[in-house]
Amino acid sequence: MTNPPFGRVLTAMVTPFTDTGELDLDGAQRLAAHLIENGNDGLVISGTTGEAPTTSDAEKERLLRAVTDVVGDRASVIAGVGTNDTAHSIELARTAEKNGARGLLVVSPYYSKPPQEGLLAHFRAIADATDLPVILYDIPGRTGVPIETETLVRLAEHDRIVAVKDAKGDLAASAQVLACTDLAYYSGEDALTLPLLSVGGVGVVGVPTHLFAEQVGRMIGAYLAGDVAAAADLHRGLLPVFVGFFRTQGVILAKAALRLAGLPAGPVRRPLVDATGDQVERLRADCAAAGLTL
Fold first, then answer.
1. Is 185:164 a contact under the CB 8 Å cutoff?
2. pLDDT of residue 102 exceeding 90
3. Which helix (H) or strand (E) holds 77?
């Protein structure tokens, strides 16, 4: 796919909070502007890395409005609207459309473990609710249920279901869907971005891309230009952060890295806990190994 629907390098943006745990809208705008000025084609707001499970609907709306106001037409702003309640997800989707989102990220319903027919009904209902394009988020390690290949093929028939954020870790299954649909596949696992490109993926929705978007963009660009050796070298150089940002829960270390870089982040919300001193030092070393001194 020469023209992926949302660009190639997207960051699942953290939600900055103040030191007292309130939503930091000024910080969110400064961070969003920094990200798109430093290699990101798009931002995902209120995803898992945005701590969506612990932000209210009102906070999500205010956050999205603030980010779309500062980003304008410079990048794609995607709103995370997936929940384990179809009606609630539809409500969030309609609110996101009203507040300027360019697309919707919809994770599989979690905990309730619906059958595949339930997934079909859920995703189709949300896609029917607005005029926005939809990215399906397939992450069975968190949701408990994969979106099976046949289900993805059937969902691809919907005009507004255009992409998948793929965190299933099954390249054979991804290749099978890519072979028989027009879905754009974005890696949801940073370390698998290059392998996914090799079977037809178009880019990444990343977390280390908070600080390493330019390098990831060069890796993707090298691969697409046919310089596989250069892409592999860049991939190997980024492995310390592809692994390091996830030595504990990704939000925790993403916010720690941003604080080290002097960028807005603030604390995490419970039940998450902020990085320990040892974790921060290990993260600092991982970033240095990938070429960034913090």
1. yes
2. yes
3. strand 76-80
Helices 116-129 and 86-98: angle between axes, nearest 10 degrees: 30
Q: How far apart are CA 147 and CA 163, in angstroms?
A: 13
Threshold 0.90, pTM exceeds: yes
- Cα 85 to Cα 108: distance, rounded to the nearest angstrom: 10
Instruction: Provide the CB-side half-sphere exposure for 227 (13 A, CA).
Output: 11
Which tens digit of pLDDT belongs to each residue from 38-51?
A: 999 999 999 999 99
Phi and psi at residue 103, to the nearest 5°: -170, 175
DSSP letter for each residue of 141-198: HHHS----HHHHHHHTTSTTEEEEEE-S--HHHHHHHHHH--PEEEESSGGGHHHHHH
Q: Tell me the catalytic residues.
A: 137, 165
Could you tell me the end-to-end alpha-carbon distance of the chain, in angstroms, rounded to an integer? 36
Structural contact between residues 211 and 261, judged by C-beta atoms closer than 8 angstroms: yes
Model confidence pLDDT, tens digit, residues 107-151: 999 999 999 999 999 999 999 999 999 999 999 999 999 999 999
